[in-house]
Amino acid sequence: MIDLAARDAADPLAHFREQFALPAGVIYLDGNSLGALPKAAPSRIAEVVEREWGDGLIASWNDAEWVTAPRRIGDKIARLIGARSAEVVACDSTSVNIFKALAAAVSLNSGRKTVLSETGNFPTDLYMMQGLDRLSGGRIVAKAVEPDAVIDAIDADTAVVLLTHVHYKTGAMRDMAATTAAIHAKGALAIWDLSHSVGAMPLHLTDAEADFAVGCGYKFLNGGPGAPAFLFVAGRHQADALPALSGWFGHSAPFAFRDEYEAAPGIERFLTGTPPIIGLAGLEVGVDLMEQADLSQIRAKSLSLAEVFEHGMEPLVQRFGFTAAGPGDPAMRGSHISYRHEHGYAIMQALKARGVIGDFRDPDVMRFGLTPLYLSHADIARAVAILAEVMETGAWDRAEYRVRAAVT
Amino acid sequence: MIDLAARDAADPLAHFREQFALPAGVIYLDGNSLGALPKAAPSRIAEVVEREWGDGLIASWNDAEWVTAPRRIGDKIARLIGARSAEVVACDSTSVNIFKALAAAVSLNSGRKTVLSETGNFPTDLYMMQGLDRLSGGRIVAKAVEPDAVIDAIDADTAVVLLTHVHYKTGAMRDMAATTAAIHAKGALAIWDLSHSVGAMPLHLTDAEADFAVGCGYKFLNGGPGAPAFLFVAGRHQADALPALSGWFGHSAPFAFRDEYEAAPGIERFLTGTPPIIGLAGLEVGVDLMEQADLSQIRAKSLSLAEVFEHGMEPLVQRFGFTAAGPGDPAMRGSHISYRHEHGYAIMQALKARGVIGDFRDPDVMRFGLTPLYLSHADIARAVAILAEVMETGAWDRAEYRVRAAVT
């Protein structure tokens, strides 16, 4: 028997719960899809809107330091992912940043034309590869192979390998350092999608010698819905990587308004358009909060929460037909836990109706995010107890729970 | 003598001034760079942050209609630019949307490989063309010629012409219908950058048979700093234009999470990443406010404000060495008025110190935005009187006014 109260009492992160505005009666297990609202966000966003925009108007680009926000927030994110200052900018969407990273990586490894990933990767990673392939007219070839076959599939034509560190469905986590080394050993570059790992565990991009990375601002970073994403480019590549999306904010002198693009000397060259200031303000609040936490403690608590979840699920798995969707070894997973069930969608709807919010991923994956900053061990146990009740009573088996929403 | 009081008394748009939160003592002539804050924006943004994000959490993608926001706001913008429903989406930055439009236009006109624009265009338009050129490895060629030479420069290799409707420096306005017809007559497609015209005058994209257009959300639309931009794709092109930035939000079934990209049937295929919900909320407030105004009245008042400005400048131009930067005929200008002066930067700083906020564009252009929703004729006359005083007293000639800021 796990002593929930003892674990919660000893939790060094417990006080972070008070920093988030979560509705009463809800156990929120979907912070890996959209992180919860930091209590500091509304007032900071209001300040940006009312004081900086409303009163400061155009002068706020200088006076409120809007112009340096992508780099300033990027430097904070760099500290969360084991990167150096001037290697990260916060900007655009994850999808657009994937495109930038792919195009830059291929240009650095010219002579090779394949961009390689795994089947079942988060779709936008694959779609952006396919778009680059089409646009290039065959100069760049997008290819995806089974997850276990990626390293073997790297050949003399492979320019870059795009992999997700923690899988969005299963939670399966790759060994970043070993995988990057294997990719490099075959002469390819590595792009890591950190969407499901940034803010959920310590990351070590510099130590792993990662070449590029992208990540999401609105999951574990709690930056708000559709928050700007980020792009990491290892310092050693920056001077040689000319951006494909070469917008005016990436110019060496944007306000000289010259006709010819000249890339900014460092990471700023990967900026494109005018930075989304209000969205960046929300992101910065989330990142600032995350910086106050110890990522090793976050990882330890995530594993502890997962243990409670799995322990609670033990009597349910066989009896009700759940199967674990991810690796059995918690050390090989990120910070969400997933189960397959043929009625997964309806079961998840039944849970939501009872205040337990996870999500569903086609065709049959129920996904539960374990966010150490605002969940307790008691929350997890309670969520599993509600799931047990939903299954035991057959409460999930109602027509209304089978109505599919636009966003699942 | 212009009767300012009479013009202001007869102004059908005067009541809109009360809808904006402008600081006391400021005459804001930079709404063409960053529009002013609508009073409705803070509460709407707070609602999105606190209620929709904080309380609604992930369910707000459905319940608060986040998922359809890019299209819903796009439809509203369509009405402002004379386009049809389902031809516009609000998303990404202007720069990124330019890239999408360029890539799509070239793919529709294959066999031709040149993308053509004018020298001195807003830099990001040229830079995105140059980036596409580099990325394509020569399959697409970026070319810019003198503004007056664009139509003559269209040849059998010109796939698409990218032009800005109202020039960011001079305010010079192109005849959209005639220019589009001339472009089409030579077998090329037309992309219009509406950044300095949307919200400043009636536009007629459908009547002009424009193929693509992009525009900015934070100038005359008052959407907030770095607000999402928009992309127009004429309905007749949508089915054949496969997006180069093919992200998951442009997929026909984003939540089916398939490995292969399949473009959504309509304008939604031009969405890329997860929509920036907080930024879109600010934009929607600005667009909703603009929809309440009559664009013909906006244009008429803009011309009337320009007349007051020019009338006031008459005695200053020769005496102090100003030269008009744009066309002499107000009908050939957009909604800002620009003058060149060798000390333009310092003069603009002196004006700002006195509450008259315009901006400066290298090397010597002083730019004054005339935004009919929140400026009166009296404001304009007062601004010019302050400029006269600055010049007559030589107050601009101080070292502190020559210190260049990062953003000008």
TrEMBL record, chains A, B:
Provide the residue positions that the database annotates as binding pyridoxal 5'-phosphate: 94-95, 122-125, 164, 193, 196, 218, 248, 274
What's its top-level EC category? hydrolase
Gene Ontology MF: a single term: kynureninase activity
**Keywords recorded for this protein, A-Z:** Hydrolase, Pyridine nucleotide biosynthesis, Pyridoxal phosphate
Pathway(s) this gene product operates in, as recorded in its UniProt entry:
Cofactor biosynthesis; NAD(+) biosynthesis; quinolinate from L-kynurenine: step 2/3; Amino-acid degradation; L-kynurenine degradation; L-alanine and anthranilate from L-kynurenine: step 1/1
Write the Enzyme Commission number(s) for this entry: 3.7.1.3
Its needed co-factors are: pyridoxal 5'-phosphate
Look up the domain of life of the source: Bacteria
Which SUPFAM superfamilies has this protein been placed in? PLP-dependent transferases (SSF53383)
Residue numbers carrying N6-(pyridoxal phosphate)lysine: 219
Q: Which reaction does it catalyse?
A: 3-hydroxy-L-kynurenine + H2O = 3-hydroxyanthranilate + L-alanine + H(+); L-kynurenine + H2O = anthranilate + L-alanine + H(+)
Q: Name one GO cellular component term.
A: cytoplasm
- Family matches, as Gene3D superfamilies: Aspartate Aminotransferase, domain 1 (3.90.1150.10), Type I PLP-dependent aspartate aminotransferase-like (Major domain) (3.40.640.10)
Q: What does this protein do?
A: Catalyzes the cleavage of L-kynurenine (L-Kyn) and L-3-hydroxykynurenine (L-3OHKyn) into anthranilic acid (AA) and 3-hydroxyanthranilic acid (3-OHAA), respectively.
The family classification in the record reads: Belongs to the kynureninase family.
Report quaternary structure and partners: Homodimer.
Name it.
Answer: Kynureninase
